[in-house]
């Protein structure tokens, strides 16, 4: 999914700026407040991971940034960047080939028909799936399908102008086995660097957040509020099982447990 490209370029120095964002579902006495007065800045090129208990509004926040839903209060500014959202499930069209899925996304971006196939081939090569162009989703492993989903998210930001790209990722590796997830961490980090992406990444896995992020942002239990931020001051590349990652992950886990216990859930 992608935000409309017509939005004017903002003067903000941030790739994403949330200012006093609240989101309620429903009205009156039955309204459910999912997010409450969330303010968060994400710098261009930064990799920020969002953590919090289930139901704290992490996915809702991504949907708001992607313009799939509207805020109840506050503002969101993406500085004119192109914004793409990658879901936990690949959600590929099963009747299309891998190339067909990417060409469809490129068509949504307005890429001319004659340019779509070569661009799709380039995108597949960028996620190490060269040679799988004619396969259909059911012929691929779970990790391969997620690579295609990542390539599609990148396709949704394709353009001829110099707009920056914000990639929103909603637990994209949560259903994968540990080895495949670790390999995709490496792939994502490589693509993030090569394409100078700004990434906002939702996960329940604390070590994954520390492994990938420049910064880990912890949300409170519902309604979601930013309660603490943890800078990750470690050299890259990192290993998810390294002592430094484990130490910071333990500290964040303790803070998360404290928050969950405070709400009795």
From TrEMBL:
One of its GO terms (molecular function) is ATP binding. PROSITE patterns: ABC_TRANSPORTER_1, ABC_TRANSPORTER_2. InterPro entries: AAA+_ATPase, ABC_transporter-like_ATP-bd, ABC_transporter-like_CS, ABC_transporter_ATP-bind, P-loop_NTPase. Gene3D superfamilies: P-loop containing nucleotide triphosphate hydrolases. The keyword Lyase does not apply. Keywords: ATP-binding, Nucleotide-binding, Transport. Residues 16-246 form the ABC transporter domain. PANTHER family: ALIPHATIC SULFONATES IMPORT ATP-BINDING PROTEIN SSUB, TAURINE IMPORT ATP-BINDING PROTEIN-RELATED. This is ABC transporter ATP-binding protein. It comes from Actinocorallia longicatena.
């Amino acid at each position: 999914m992608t935000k409309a490209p017509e939005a004017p370029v903002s003067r903000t120095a941030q790739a994403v700026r949330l200012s006093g964002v609240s989101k309620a579902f429903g009205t009156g006495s039955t309204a459910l407040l999912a997010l409450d007065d969330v303010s968060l800045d994400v710098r261009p090129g930064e990799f920020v991971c969002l953590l919090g208990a289930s139901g704290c509004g992490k996915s809702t926040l991504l949907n708001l940034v992607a313009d799939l839903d509207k805020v109840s209060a506050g503002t969101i500014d993406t500085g004119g960047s192109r914004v793409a959202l990658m879901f936990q499930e690949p959600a590929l069209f099963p009747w299309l080939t891998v190339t067909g899925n990417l060409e469809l996304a490129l068509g949504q971006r307005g890429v001319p028909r004659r340019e779509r196939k070569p661009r799709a081939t380039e995108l597949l090569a960028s996620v190490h799936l060269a040679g799988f162009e004619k396969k259909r989703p059911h012929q691929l492993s779970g990790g391969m399908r997620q690579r295609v989903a990542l390539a599609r998210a990148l396709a949704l930001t394709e353009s001829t102008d110099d707009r920056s790209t914000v990639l929103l990722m909603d637990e994209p590796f949560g259903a994968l086995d540990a080895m495949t997830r670790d390999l995709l961490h490496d792939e994502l980090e490589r693509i993030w660097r090569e394409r100078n992406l700004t990434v906002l990444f939702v996960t329940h896995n604390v070590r994954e957040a520390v492994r990938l992020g420049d910064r880990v942002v912890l949300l409170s239990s519902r309604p979601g509020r930013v309660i603490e931020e943890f800078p990750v001051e470690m050299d890259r590349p990192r290993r998810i099982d390294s002592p430094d990652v484990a130490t910071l992950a333990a500290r964040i886990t303790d803070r998360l447990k404290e928050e969950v216990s405070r709400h009795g859930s």
